[in-house]
Design a protein that fits this description.
Elements (H helix, E strand, L loop, with lengths): L1 H10 L3 E5 L4 H9 L3 E6 L7 H9 L2 E4 L2 H11 L1 H4 L2 E3 L21 E5 L9 H10 L6 E5 L12 E5 L3 H10 L2 E4 L8 H8 L4 E4 L13 E2 L4 H10 L1 H12 L8 H11 L1
Parallel strand pairs: 1-2, 2-3, 3-4, 5-6, 5-8, 6-7, 8-9, 9-10
Helix pairs in contact: 2-3, 6-9, 9-10
């Protein structure tokens, strides 16, 4: 009965925007009913057999970064190449106009990390341990399911936070470290910059494509970048201003919609 009602609902529209594998079968049904179908691929981790149906039946496939697009194209080849486009997201919050002043006794580094292998703080714990020998700082981890991570005692695991608590943590921290190996985009980076916090992003992330070069790190240079930024509040502020001045930070969700709808 639910499936029948859902199909009746879909039939009342002209265009379906399908969110990756979660709606792949609905994309198939919509196409059979004559609807235009746009299929979003947000994570190469969802390149599952079921995902093939959505990609095959869609009119347009949208990736959230060039990195994701390359992975999708490598996976599906000619099946997707002619209908694949990149549409970047926008900052989830209205970006602040000035750099907020913090009063932390020691710098605080926050790692926003949903419970997924590619986002696991373990990817950078060795580097953070090394940096702790020369600079005093706190490390906090939060994110959906983060309470399931097994972390050393010097890392404060805040677990899953509500929206208001998440915003408070962003605003009070000195530096956000985005972990993603790889990370299809990395919206947490735009969240941090919008709220006035500088961020270092993995060079293996989609968001590295739209933030300045100074924002990117590799596993090899991360220790040096952290020592530089945690030792110098002015360096953190300068990094934030460069990030805040990036064109992506002026982007709106209306811009995103115009790009999505332009190609159908």
């Amino acid at each position: 009965a639910f499936a029948r009602d859902l199909l009746n609902l879909v039939h009342a529209y002209d265009w379906l925007l399908a969110h990756d594998v979660h709606s792949s079968l609905l994309a198939v049904a919509a196409k059979e009913l004559g609807l235009r179908v746009t299929y979003f691929v947000h994570s190469p981790g969802y390149l599952l057999p079921l995902d093939l149906a959505g990609v095959f039946y869609s009119d347009t496939v949208i990736a959230n970064s060039r990195l994701t697009a390359r992975l999708v194209e490598a996976h599906y080849g000619d099946l997707v190449s002619r209908k694949l486009r990149v549409v970047y997201p926008a900052p989830p919050y209205e970006p602040v106009g000035e750099y907020p002043r913090r009063s932390n006794s020691v710098p605080t580094v926050v790692i926003p990390s949903r419970f997924q292998f590619n986002k696991d703080p373990a990817h950078v714990l060795g580097v953070l341990e090394e940096v702790r020998r020369s600079v005093r700082f706190r490390v906090l981890v939060f994110g959906r399911g983060a309470e399931y991570y097994s972390l050393p005692t010097w890392v404060e695991n805040l677990g899953t936070l509500g929206e208001e608590e998440k915003l408070r943590v962003y605003r009070e921290t000195d530096l956000v470290l985005q972990v993603g190996f790889p990370e299809p985009f990395g919206l947490v980076a735009l969240e941090a910059v919008a709220l006035g916090t500088p961020v270092l992003v993995s060079s293996q992330s989609g968001v590295a494509e739209v933030l300045p070069e100074e924002a990117r790190y590799t596993p090899e240079d991360l220790a040096g970048r952290l020592v530089e930024l945690l030792s110098d509040p002015r360096a953190r502020e300068e990094l934030w201003w460069r990030e805040r001045s990036s064109p992506i930070m002026s982007r709106t969700w209306a811009d995103v919609w115009r790009e999505v709808s332009a190609g159908g």
